[in-house]
Write a structure and sequence with these properties.
heterodimer; A: about 400 residues; alpha+beta; Butyryl-Coa Dehydrogenase, subunit A, domain 1; Butyryl-CoA Dehydrogenase, subunit A, domain 2; Butyryl-CoA Dehydrogenase, subunit A, domain 3; 3 domains; two-stranded antiparallel sheet; globular; B: about 140 residues; Nonspecific Lipid-transfer Protein, Chain A; 6 helices; about 20% strand
Chain lengths: ~400, ~140
Amino acid sequence: MPEVQMTEAEFEVYLAKARELSLFFREIGPKYDVDNTFAYPSIKAFKDSGLGALPVPKEFGGPGGSILHTSKIISELSKGDSAITLAYNMHFIMVGITMGLMSETQNKYWLGRVADGEIMFGPFSEQRAGFSGLADMKAVPQSEGGWRLYGKKTWGTLCEAADIITTNATITDADGNLPEDFQERVNAESFFIADFNVDEDGQGDGIRIEKTWDALGMHSTGTHVIHFDGLFVPEDGFICEWRSGAFGVLEWASLMFASIYLGMQYRVLEESRAVLSKKTLGATFGAIVAQDTKVATVGHIIDGIGDMASRVELSRRVLYQTCQDLIDGKDDEWPLELRFPYIGLAKTFIAENVMNMTRHAMSMVGGSSFRRGTIFERLYRDSAASMFQPLNSDQSRTYIGEVLLAPEQLND
Amino acid sequence: MSVFKDAEEVYAFIGGMFEKAVQEPSFIEATKNTGLVVLVTQTDPDATMLVDFPGQKVLVGDAAANATPTVQLRMSSDNSNKFWQGHLNFTLAMAQRKVKLDGKRSVALKLLPLTQPLFDTYKQVLRDAGRDDLLV
């Protein structure tokens, strides 16, 4: 984990910018949820805010924010609109991952561009097996050096705003054949970085966006399919072997996703309080029989808000302490094989809590929350996305259980 | 059946590679202040080596087993022969439980970049001993 270079006073400036940008996201979010498109006005606003440079170390032109600083900024933005923020979250994830894996020269060049305001994204998942699948996408070596990439990535979040692409592909022989041997295939799966130049229709030289995104929630992330039709990556665009590199830095994915859903938890609590503290049912004859029922005095509503606030506070502590543990090097004490799933516990814990909260909020607010366009139905739909980003709860438990049940002897 | 006849062969070749490494100026420079003391435990045949990079010494057998390492590396002797020639993907082998790495992550991760330069050293040790049959 890079050293923390940013002071808390410096961070306050970035947090103020995040609060301002969050308000803008909150304002435009409903329109792009309904339109089911990327929130295009967010691009200029995000770039103008300078927040994209936050985690870039000072030696590469950024302010040197830590993973905890970045987490707090993402949660602040997510409080405004989780879907728009989930798009920009991709940028922070890829900046965090690449800066831990790139050479000094690569960091100077690519992170320098990020410090100047450029946006990075990284499509990795493929149709066959998502993030865990070894890349079917091919990197075919070229006689003049470098590679051409051929294949398709199905989760290209933020593609409509990005200037830089990172991705994984398997290096083939000169004829484009993938290695047949499993270990050779693992060895050949590689991590690349390149310019991402597409026109307003999403067409570029050897790369294009196919606008396919249509999902239950998170409408404005612009998570389209990316087609690689021979995108050229020069030799200096090779970062490292993908699997061996990635497992050391995946906290940037896991904890940034957790930050999105913590921000969403803040919003769920805020909106629930706003409605339930004022709502009056008048005369009721049902579960509650009273001449004038004020919702805020009903026992299960009081408990429900208390439960929500408790979940928010627990989630905040779990996330921030996990970030701090990494900064302090306390992950040194964890078994090596369990480091990644242990870090992922923050995300899975928060994901389960935010889904509980959005469902509970609708239950407490009542049927009006089910109508299309209300904040509660949107949060409910958007929170469902938390089931999927790696590691999800099932994957985490499998990882941990397998390690704990493994026999002492090795497999040979 | 293992490619190594007995522990003495393991100590002669893999241990021999470590003996060269701990005296190599670039390794001495790369490992000073790292606290990198690696206990390599192999099976079939059973063999134990302690590589004290900062202390520039290699212990084998009981002497190694009784020392205090900061990192422990376990694998079969056959896999060790492949690994030190660069023919075993470490991440994959860890995931498949062919290799077990224990110790503090911050110290253990210092070992991995050091392995690559050792591949040529190991192969040269085998060639010098006329043991081309062990080359993978």
